[in-house]
Amino acid sequence: MAAAVAVTVLIANPAEALYVPPMMIAVGMGTILGGTVVGALVALAGVVAVLVLHGLDATGAYLGVVLLVAAGLADRVAGGLSKGNTRADDSLALLSVLIAALHRVAETPGVRDADATLPGLLRESAGEGILVWRTTHGEPEAVAGASHLEDADAVAEVVRQVAADGVEIDEVRGRRGRRRHLTAVPIFDRGDVVAVFTAYRPVPLAARERRIVQEFTATLGHVLTKLHEERAGDLVLQFVQHHDSAVGTAPMSQALLELLLPELGVWGGTVMRYQGGRFVSEALAGDLQEGLTRRLEAGMPYGEGVVWEGYRLGEALFIDDYRQHPGASSELAAYGVRAAAVVPTDPAPGSSTVVVLFHNAPRHWLASERAMVIDLVSVLRASVTQRRSEARVTEVARLQRDLLATPVDEMYQRLVEAAVRLVPDTERASLLVKGDDDAFHFAAAVGYDLEALSPLTFTNEAMRAWYGEADEGWFQGAPRVLRTTESVSVAERSSLSQPAVAATRAADVDAIVANLCLPVVYRDATVAVLNLDALQDPDAFRPSAMAVAAGLAPFVGFLLHESDVRRQLAAAAHTDVLTGLANRRAFNEEVDRDIRRATRYGEPLALLVLDLTGFKRINDRFGHDAGDAALRDVAKALRSASRGGDRLYRWGGDEFAVLLAHADAEAAHAAALRMAGEIGEIATPAGAMSVNIGVALVPADGTDLDELVRVADTRMFRAKASGQALVESESEA
């Protein structure tokens, strides 16, 4: 600039070259000190020197004006250079601080450590107007010097808006006549605003500074996402290591909660398992109220609370404000639940296990938190599936070992109880076994009155109508599910197969909302039918439950075959070899049970005691072969005169007994006369056969077996004494 002034003077007036050096000095010093008071004084001194040396003529004035103009230009150029250098230094300092901050965050071992590091990130030479605010949960929190920030409340309000909208804000704010520039930039982690960067300074961010901040916020978001992923991986590894040493599913569920709760900073949690139409807590953790703990341990009935919503949808639910959710339980809200996460272990409707997390204040569930929970729950699902499969194999093996040494009737019952435990969604169950009469009879039940079911029989055609599917499924043992929500309800299907209204009452079909019917096939024959019932959830018995049931079928078929062999052996021990009728041992074991059932349900029952007349004469005169033939003919006559549900017994020698179900006095006497008539038609070498019969009724004559036998014997002897087949009343006797 000084050289330019000198050249200008020489061109204008070469004679004034004498004055060039002081002019150059004045202008040069003014340039060096441009923008300062000292620079202005130096330039003014140069002007005065020129005027003194030259005088106050026109030439001197001209040179003074030139010098002042040159000094002014120098001042502007120098000031611009100074400010440019200052801005460059500021940008470089900001860039250095932000890069250092990124390095420090990236080097932290985890997200929680990074969060702890944030308060010191921008304190190093960035100035108190540069801040990072956490916005993950609750109110925005400045992590670097907010307490010393001018207009901190106003800046926090802008941060709230940026956190809510996810959009950068750049504005000018004024206070007490001072203008300040605010820039707020969101920091994202998987789409969530987890922090906000703010610059609140007297001057706005320059273009290069804005680019630096934008790159910093984007990079910091990527770093936080990476740290969250690494942390989730660490938690999965810890859980897998615990899985190797855990015994059963409950310890694994407990371990999951103990990992998640401190990581998320939530109040408490539970892992709930479907059991008998309720979701019952399998594991609990956290600082839950005592009342809430008891409630979860007691279980959530069908349809109550968001756990059932997750069960029906098969999707994770993350609820920020529990009290505003339409499926929330008012009882749980009263216990302090304000936010909740519900994550089924199976990503499909009907998951038998659901993980539930609670918090005592509304909270926003971040995408990184949701991903972490879902990842850990998926590992729990794999672990639980493995353990339950192992448990099923172990239980089946133990059943096979134990049941083969168990009495047949008890074996049936234990088999049904095992099916209830092993097949998800099952609340009640029953087993029908095919008998020698080619009909199906109830052999065991859980949740039903077996004594009320025992008299019921079903033909093969009736059971096929109940199954309702194609023949291929019936003969291959394919499970069938029937729901009340379908076109044909459980009760309607049942009416096609059940023999009477009494059967409908005993089976309580109106209470069944879903039924899984499993034909049990052994060696190409359907030997039994296992019915599994749900009373709460009409969507029960989804594919996973059907797969478990289908896996049980071959095992059940084998056991039933073995039990049939044992039953045949037991029947031989309870059968009279000569007549094929049940023997006295069978009478003692069976009749007492039937008397108890009839007494309990107020049903009539009749006991007939029969004694042949003149049988000893046949043996004595014509030999035992003739006597044996006569006994076989008597058994044939009794079968001919009896109904399908009557039970026939040979007590021994020439004594027989008959048990008549649902028979009152009139029906019992009619049956006795019918049997006496059939026996009277038997021809023997000694002439026609005859019989004396005594009748005892339940409950008119008693409810005790010994008492009934005594009454029937007494009446039989009275009939013998009177020479009649039977006596119908005391007066007649």
Q: Which value, in Å, is the CA radius of gyration?
A: 49 Å
Shape: rod-shaped
Report on the biggest sheet.
6 strands, antiparallel
Q: Number of helix segments?
A: 24
Helix content: 40-55%
Average of pLDDT: 79
Spatial gap, N to C terminus: 154 Å
Beta-strand content: 15-25%
> What is the strand tally?
23
Low-confidence runs (pLDDT<50, min 5 residues)? 7-12, 31-35, 80-86
User: Which strand order does the major sheet show?
Assistant: 8-7-6-11-10-9
Alpha-beta classification:
alpha+beta
Tell me about this structure:
By secondary structure, the protein is an alpha+beta fold. The longest helix has 49 residues. α22 runs antiparallel to α23. 38% of the residues are buried. The strands form 5 sheets. It has a 6-stranded antiparallel β-sheet, with helices on both faces. Strands 14-13-12-17-16-15 form a 6-stranded antiparallel β-sheet. It has a 5-stranded antiparallel β-sheet with strand order 2-1-5-4-3.
Keywords:
733 residues, six-stranded antiparallel beta sheet, alpha+beta, rod-shaped, 52% helix, single chain
Reconstruct the topology from this structure.
Blueprint: H1 2-12, H2 20-32, H3 37-54, H4 58-106, H5 111-117, E1 130-134, E2 141-142, H6 152-165, E3 169-175, E4 178-189, E5 192-201, H7 207-245, H8 249-264, E6 268-275, E7 278-286, H9 290-298, E8 300-301, H10 306-313, E9 317-319, H11 330-334, E10 339-344, E11 353-359, H12 367-403, H13 408-422, E12 428-434, E13 440-446, H14 450-453, E14 457-458, H15 460-467, H16 471-476, E15 480-483, H17 490-495, H18 501-507, E16 514-522, E17 525-534, H19 543-573, H20 584-601, E18 605-613, H21 615-622, H22 624-641, E19 647-652, E20 655-661, H23 665-680, E21 683-684, E22 687-688, E23 690-698, H24 705-722
Antiparallel strand pairs: 1-2, 1-5, 3-4, 4-5, 6-7, 6-11, 7-8, 9-10, 10-11, 12-13, 12-17, 13-14, 15-16, 16-17, 18-20, 18-23, 19-20, 21-22
Helix pairs in contact: 1-2, 2-3, 2-4, 3-4, 4-7, 7-8, 7-12, 8-12, 12-13, 13-19, 21-22, 22-23
